[in-house]
Design brief:
Oligomer: heterodimer
Number of strands of chain A: 13
Shape of chain B: globular
Number of helices of chain A: 13
Low-confidence stretches of chain A: none
Largest sheet of chain A: 7 strands, parallel
Largest interface: A-B, 23 and 17 residues
CATH topology of the largest domain in chain A: Rossmann fold
Structural class of chain B: alpha/beta
Number of domains of chain B: 2
CATH architecture of the largest domain in chain B: Alpha-Beta Barrel
Strand content of chain A: 15-25%
Mean pLDDT of chain B: 95
Strand order of the largest sheet of chain A: 3-2-1-4-5-6-7
CATH superfamily of the largest domain in chain A: Glycogen Phosphorylase B
Chain lengths: 369, 396
Amino acid sequence: MKIAMIGWEYPPYKVGGLGTHCYGLTHGLADKNVQIDFYMPKLRQKVASDNKNINIIEVGETTIFPYDRPDDKELGGRFFDAVYRYNDLVVQRVKGRYDVIHCHDWLTMKAAVQLKETLGVPLVLTVHSTEYDRSGWIYPNQWFIDIEKEGMQKADRIIAVSEFTKRVIVEKYGINPNKITVVHNAVYPIGEGEKKNLVLFLGRLTIQKGPEFFLKSAKKVLEYEDARFVIAGMGDMLPKLIEQAVHLGISNKVIFTGKLTEEEVQHIYQISSIYVMPSVSEPFGITALEAISAGTPTIVSKTAGVSEVLKNCFRVDFWDTDEMANKIIALLRYQSLHETMRQSSKREIQLFTWDRVAEKTLAVYRGLM
Amino acid sequence: MPSICMYFEVHQPFRLNHFSVFNIGHTHDAHSTYFNHHLNQKIFEKVASKCYLPTNNLLLDLIRQYDGRFRISYSLTGTFVEYCEKYLPELLESFKELFNTGAVDLIEETYFHSLSGLYDDLDEFEDQVKMHQKMIKRVFNYKPKVFRNTEAIYDNRIAQKVASLGYKGIITEGTERILGWRSPNFLYKPTNTNLKVLLRNYKLSDDIGFRFSSRNWPGFPLTADKYANWMSNSFGDVINLFMDYETFGEHQWTETGIFEFLRHLPGEALKHESLDFATVSEAVERYNAVGDLDVPWAISWADEDRNVSTWLGNNMQIACFNELKDIGQKLKRKGDRDLLYVWRLLQTSDHLYYISTKGFEDGTVHAYFSPYEAPYDGFINYMNILQDLKEKAESR
């Protein structure tokens, strides 16, 4: 079986869960003897394949990223053009005989739809997030929604990363639920390090990820327990968050790391004692699995897709900063809680393997052939 | 000829309010802030209408119909009786009516359905047994002869204590761990004291309690005549069918046919010459012990493990348990009766049960009974309340 997979990012150069997913999925499939041509943009550093069944093909250069918003200043009005141009490049570049075209998220959807027609092969679309998620459900941009909707309509099968995302696809995009398969994400375990007294937020600093709720909780925690709060990642909210920390009077307890390398991310997971994911909207949330695999008990937003399948974690409403603080304090204060949760959650995530993701994805491919 | 000994556990815990760290040290009246009276009343009334009242009525009819040949036993916890007196006195009247038929026996236990039998010394255990004894005397004017510890938790030490308190029999689980090749359908004697031990026939009991409505069980559908046949083919002196009272109408819903099963059970059983019914006291009087039981480590009737790991299986549970014991010593020195009562309500084993993190199969059973989303939430809530109580115990 041969798959043309149209992706965006691929480790070690990645920004979000999409890159992690593509790496895990392609390797899981390759182990099942599926051949994959992985199409992605040309980067400054060359990305090399480490598996004989995976062939990485660079399409061309581009200036856009999947998490960009069209109001980003440096892109301005050229954003839409840049997207169309890259999609044209993809259509020109993808050649050969494939059994399935597999596309991830909005950015290359136009190309995927066109390829499905020119090559006459079925199209599978994995939805890692929708415009509603990325906008935090505040003023979603119709331009993205239209692209996503067309892709979802034209795709032969859709894979959603959670039941939550499946519901969004059905309710917001009007797609037939029978064509959607839910495949929850997985994790390559990181391994434990020596814990410091750190409470971690890790993710893009955008409305979607809810970093301001993390800071509000931090303020409440610090009235009772001592700890340091780490905000790891970059995003348009950074200046606002720095200001918020000053206003709350906790700037001496909050560390902003800026952008971290892959190794630094692993290290920060390992030394943190609690991970908090207060996302307003989170289709899945692989970072929760990564944190747990590093022995870090985790508090996730109830909206997160991962909370559908992960039992050994705390689930809170992202806006309920009292409850979030209550749980952080308890984890800092009660060693028995921290210890029990660390052990049980680590045991539980052994079930979240990329082999299982590949198995379920393969079943979707087979259903189309 | 085996006697069928049916016994029902009737219990309700006082579930807790949401209690966050921010509440610690800011409560005035412990009783009204710790316990979720609204939720508790709601659950109690729901279970009463689905289970307690219809089952009581049915059993009363059956006892009359078979003219006392159908005989049963109950244990009512102190907290359950408090619920009745507070919210539904007619339910307690219904239990009195059952008792007054003469075909119903009552069993002793710790008033608070607690784990005090596992404390380092058994003073608190004895206090709670005596509280239960006093309550049964007051409500039913009766003194039970048979004892059953919380969730059938049993070891040599508990047996000895119970014998010293004057009971003739004690109930526990008929697990192979203490029986080996021997049958639960006989009475036994603790190796270290003079007492008769009634052992739950877990296979036949769980056929009703757990498997009754399970479609992938070979015994499905379970009818009263089939079940009576199984019992008449059993060998031994007694068949001890011990189960939660909520089996009827709550764990097994009305729609499963559980009430129809119960309605026909006495008639079908009494068709067999070899079968009759006995209360626990009668079983203890009628039969002799056939062998010794040596139980140095505590067993119970819970989960697959049949030990105390359901309540003390993880570090969170052990931390709470130790905290609970520690607070008790402080409160006893302080001598505050109201706080002592609150502390005892917090000893009800359910609070620790909600914190169990045991495996998936057992875990689903736990989840069904728990007011919390996850054991970790249960821990935080319970531990926060214990911290608040500790502050009160330490203050003057």
